[in-house]
């Protein structure tokens, strides 16, 4: 199975958790580097779009872009002897690209373009726009930084007593001074399913997605479920299709905001669909030949999937016949 295009697949970041208590001293190291993050968007430079070459821009912690915008610091780990940090500078004001023709996504509110010692094309694009271009190490660094900062943003209060908690352990936990409770970053497991029936695969579409965007069915796991049980429940809830036992194929951290995508395969035991409009907008069976047109960009209805996402990787491997589709678990055993 070819996972070379799987973004956030792991790049060998040394998280150096034993050094989190020494983060302030490490940040003062002249060789340390920081990744500025603005409202969930890491600083990058290069060209975007098909064939683009966006890469992370790591700065010295005392760079004015960071120090002038009241940063919050996260110790990410080390690369060799280099301490690495995320610097949240979300207080930096935004401006409209549409108004002045600045770089980035047209019509999106973005911060003023960085100046001075930074490349002229440095900016804060949506991380999903760079999935195909980042190195494995860069993608792990960016996913870690975005995921943990989003957790801090969305969990400012103690779940035990309601008091405001504070960042602790170089960003890897929150501590409530009022009751002493410690809180740690969470990751939500999501099953995403390659559901097949002979020469066809099941695709779905959520409300609000861009025109022509279809993908594999997916949903959050519930307490007490095995992976296989979650696959069967989600497929049935959304489409009414019954599936056999599921086989785990690959996993992917997905920091939008903080999920672990568990890529599975299951064979359909029924083809008739009853779509739940509260769950999805549309679903359809598509043949292997039509999926080839989707990847070629020539399908009249469905747009090419986003490169780097686990759905794209699973579909591409199924199309190429490179999925490790061996023995599936006995019905009812699932995966723990």
Automatic annotation (TrEMBL):
CDD domains named among the record's database cross-references: NUDIX_NADH_pyrophosphatase_Nudt13
Its EC number(s): 3.6.1.22
One BP annotation, GO: NADP+ catabolic process
Pfam families assigned: NUDIX, NUDIX-like, Zn_ribbon_NUD
Essential cofactor(s): Zn(2+); Mg(2+)
GO cellular component: cytosol
Molecular-function GO terms, alphabetical: metal ion binding; NADH pyrophosphatase activity
UniProt entry keywords in alphabetical sequence: Hydrolase, Magnesium, Metal-binding, NAD
Domain Nudix hydrolase, first and last residues per copy: 185-314
Annotated PROSITE patterns: NUDIX, NUDIX_BOX
Catalytic activity of the protein: a 5'-end NAD(+)-phospho-ribonucleoside in mRNA + H2O = a 5'-end phospho-adenosine-phospho-ribonucleoside in mRNA + beta-nicotinamide D-ribonucleotide + 2 H(+)
Family: Belongs to the Nudix hydrolase family. NudC subfamily.
Name recorded for this polypeptide: NAD(+) diphosphatase
Native species: Maritimibacter harenae
Lineage: Bacteria, Pseudomonadati, Pseudomonadota, Alphaproteobacteria, Rhodobacterales
